[in-house]
Amino acid sequence: MSAEHGLDERFEFGAALITRAAAVAQQFYLRQASLTVRTKGIQDVVSEADTEVEKLIRDAVEERFGADAFFGEEFGHNEVEGASDVWIVDPIDGTQPFLSGLSSWCVSIGFARAGRLEMGFVAAPARDEIFMGRRGQGATLNGRSIHVSESTRLDDGLVSIGMSPRIGPDEILPIVDTLLRQGVVYYREGSGALSLAYVAAGRLIGYIESHLNSWDGAAGVAIVEAAGGRVNDFLAGDALRKGGPVVATNEALYPALAAALPDHLRPSTLSKPRTAASST
Q1: What is the helix, strand, coil percentage profile of the chain, to 5?
Q2: Are 14 and 107 a contacting pair, CB within 8 Å?
Q3: d(CA 141, CA 242)
Q4: Distance of alpha carbon 188 from alpha carbon 163, whole angstroms
Q5: pTM for this one?
Q6: Could you tell me which of 109, 148, 172, 224 has the fewest CB atoms within 10 Å of its CB?
């Protein structure tokens, strides 16, 4: 075991696994009209692609790192309580766009140790893109180094505003109103993980959402931090199980973007100091 306690091995494993999982997901996407689909709730559906891709990822993790915990959106929640090493997975983030034939979906694999996100892998196979990042070692897009935007004003680029049926209009609309009044041009993707990856790549200057499930955000948050960005403590408290707010941007814009959240969603965790950034 190296001084990194197996993190090097896990990163290499994750990089290979995201490529494999993305290829399988893309095959399902090419025949999305014929997939079996069931409804979990309002604007919340699951297809056989979700379950099969998650099973592929879960089985690979169990075979290689059997002692690690696994927390997946669809059915993988084995022994998370008290676990140090946890893989956090959304097999298809953006299932509705996926099933609608749109390209704004991705496979998302994050890894946390002792409650801290260490690495993330986000693949958007319909766009032929794979984002990766590891704490303190930088982030890449298709193997090329990426970094968050250097913008210093919220009206200097695009800000993604996430939303879901879990949060009502009374919490979403004030965020939109606050940012529009500051000259923000907002952007809406079908996937929180993909939006976060775009922040890491500097395509978006920020991403904000009142509530994001951990499987949707873990990988993207890790990549943003690795790309030199600043994000609130996304896994604070019981957020692994229950989700929570997310604010992701660069150091300069973080205070202004975080201030757009409603007061009750701006606890001390949103004022946490900058996390370890890219060393590149």
Answers
A1: 35, 25, 35
A2: no
A3: 29
A4: 9
A5: 0.90
A6: 172
* DSSP-assigned letter for residue 8: H
Instruction: Say which CATH architecture domain 154-271 belongs to.
Output: 3-Layer(aba) Sandwich (3.40)
Domain edges within the chain: 7-146, 154-271
Domain 7-146 is of which CATH architecture? 2-Layer Sandwich (3.30)
Predicted pLDDT at 32: 80
How far apart are alpha carbons 140 and 80 in whole angstroms?
29
pLDDT (mean) for 103-132: 97
Q: Determine which of 33-42, 70-79, 160-169 has the lowest per-residue pLDDT on average.
A: 33-42
Number of helices (H), then strands (E), belonging to the chain: the values are 8, 15
- Say what angle helices 192-200 and 214-226 make with each other, to 10 degrees: 0
Whole-angstrom Cα distance, residue 110 to residue 218? 5
Tokens standing for residue 228: 């030199």
Taking the C-alpha atoms of residue 199 and residue 249, their distance in angstroms, rounded to an integer, is 7
Which one is predicted more confidently, 124 or 95? 124
Token pair recorded at residue 185:
């041009």
pLDDT tens profile 206-215: 999 999 999 9
Torsion of CA 70, 13, 5, 55, to 10 degrees: 10
How long a stretch of residues is the chain? Answer: 280
7-146 against 154-271: fold identical: no
Pairing between β-strand 129-134 and β-strand 116-124 as defined by DSSP bridges: antiparallel
Cα–Cα distance for residue pair 16/202, rounded to 1 Å: 25
CA distances from 126 to 92, 104, 221 (A): 12, 8, 21
What number is the average pLDDT over the span 3-32? 91
